[in-house]
Give the backbone structure.
Amino acid sequence: MASTPSSSITLSRSQFRTWRAFGGFCGALAVITAAALAWFFSIARSALPEIDVTLAVRGLSAPVSVTRDSHGVPTIEAATLDDLFFAQGYVTAQDRLFQMDLMRRAAAGELSEVVGDVALRHDRQQRILGIRAEAEKGLQAATPENRQQFGDYARGVNAYLESHRDRLPLEFRILRYSPRPWTIQDSLTIGYQMVETLSTSPSAALTREKILAKLGPELTADLYVNTSWRDHPPTAPAPIWEGSPPLKPVATSSRAGTRSSAVKWPNIKAASLLEPWLAPFFPTDPLPLGSNNWVVSGTHTVTGKPLLSNDMHLGHQMPNLWYQAHLHAGDFDVAGVTLPGYPYVIVGHNRRVAWGFTNLTATLEDVYVENFDEHGQYLTPEGWKQPEVRREIIHVKGKPDVAVDVAVTRHGPIVTELSPGETRKIALRWTLYDGTRIPFFHVDQVQNWQEFRRAFSELDAPGQNVVYADVDGNIGYQTTGKVPLRASGDGSLPVDGSNSAHEWIGSIPFDQLPNVLNPASGIIGTANGRITPDGYPHSVSVQWEAPWRTDRIYRVLGSGKKFSAQDMLSLETDVYSELDAFVADKLVYAADHAQNVSPPVRKAADILRQWNGQMNAASAAPTIVSKARVELKRMLLETKLGADPQAEQADKSSLSWESYHWMMETVWLENVLTHRPARWLPPNYASYDDLLATALSEAVKKAPADLDSWKWGPEDSVTIQNPVLGKIPILRRWTGPGEQPQSGSGYTVKAAGRTYGPSERFTADLSNLDASTLNLVTGESGNFLSPYYMDQWQAWYTGYTFTLPFSSSAARDSATHRMILQPK
């Protein structure tokens, strides 16, 4: 017994020594971790721009004032245009330098140089398309005025870059590289990347060709519908409805606001950080992007002056794509959104005129099948010719360079490699290769409708729908872009490149593109849908967007209400889906009349019966109807195109029901469910009601036991994260919103999906430009420790906005920071 206490005491001492050592280790680790984090954050803080300071900058001719408001939005005031665009480059680089570098590398096909061969496929695509090569040509074709202004902008970027080489944004340090100086070609490359993003995919013609060969002309014509009774061409009279739906209030917060409110870096997987930048030019399905713009005359507003709204729906980035700025030098006075890396204001207003864009979705690319012989020559109407060969060298981090030889025919580069499964020599004809003029300096200065049309006659690509309003009360619309005139065909199918039967013979004259000034209705709106009226003599697009958003916009604006700027925001955030309400009605009727309906199907039908068509995050009905729509598409198509998507993936030349993607595919579905043609009813179904009830049954098989818990918000969530810092677990909660449930869908005015949505929300109030509103998705800054990194997120996410000060007095009153750039 005497030994027991002694043994107990000895064990306790041993434990004490162990715990003391462990505690010392943990303490040391905590100190090291704290020191590392402190160093890490000190590096990040060092990249924050100086915004309350006077700086001497080499390259200026006179002092420039840069005031920032409470959301970091700069007002840049200079004595000369040269100094203004220099300062625009400098200030944008302060907030967005890493994003600018990533954008120019993604556009030019130079990502592999900094992230390795994970980006090689993307870089090969960009080199084959020749985006950087076209920028080199664009520099030679640019006017002296444009070269001067782009050069000023580049000098401003480089002045900031060279003075901050030791204080670069954190992303550069993590990826272990330093950016090269900025050039005019870099800015042009970024502009051409936007043309690429907003171009329709040439893969649609290749898929359509296969479907036509399998189904024949009648069924193919059904599938590739390109008109709808819901279309609203801007130049056609606005429709009048009995009992038009009232404008609903914003479901969430609708409050309007003013702008007062030597280390081992983490091993980040490059593939995941590059996801937003690696979209293929030949995607298997159309990019789910869409935009809205509209303008109403003073007869429809509470002030008696026009209201103009624009929310461009694009892929999400962190930071967001656009950068707000107010540029002022003498009579040049314009505010709105700018494209980082590119001078001017792209969408916004000056002292007299406001404008906004949606993508035209014109058919600006043709696929030519070229006939090559064994000697590498291709056949032309003049005989066999040798293609030009453009050699591209791709630098790959940690590996040897990769050479890409691009054969270029009279129609354009051979792009067969970009269409998996294609074996023919495919040449791409694209309006981008014909050169693009740069109109935005003149756009930013327009004073009236005539100057507006003259300036936009030089917007060659991307083709856009542009709405117009001025302080005199005028409203208007203009189609823009070089739209090809073809000797035959419309670009919907691949054509033989060896003859002249399908050559481009010019472009639609600008004066013949649809336009209208002061329509009798006082309402103009576009949402990527058909803009050509019946009887229009030219083919503009073979693939308009489905008209659901356009139709909703016209129904709301035609309700007879007198609108305010707040009402415009309510419409921008509207989540009513006429498509899904239509399908829900069909599903409910079918379930009510079907035999042997299961309890879950009856429950689903009851949920849909009580639904109001709002795609709200907290509702289960949107999930049920959306899943059932997918099942309907599958059941209608699989017996005709194939039932096994895996077989299609294994053999790219084969088809399955998932091969069919078309921006108006929901119009095909509406037509089928409305007219119920026998040719589309699949075998083994006695009626369309039988088919619909089965689709609903198949959908709810994937649902949780409690159907009411199948909420739409997580199904259509939005995900936004910093491409580099968001991969670091400790930081990711501060480096982006991450994944959040959201309301809306691709068919609501608030067109929203997991990776895309409104990239800005803008309303110009022509009665008082200081009452105009604008907000981005997350914020002005790309530096994650900046207070302006995510300060606009809640406004975007919950549905409120901020005023955009414009007059000298408003800009002065809103200023919270002041920087003076003076000549060195």
User: Anything to note?
Assistant: The two ends are 89 Å apart (CA to CA). Residues 144 and 356 are 27 Å apart (CA to CA). The chain has 24 helices and 28 strands.
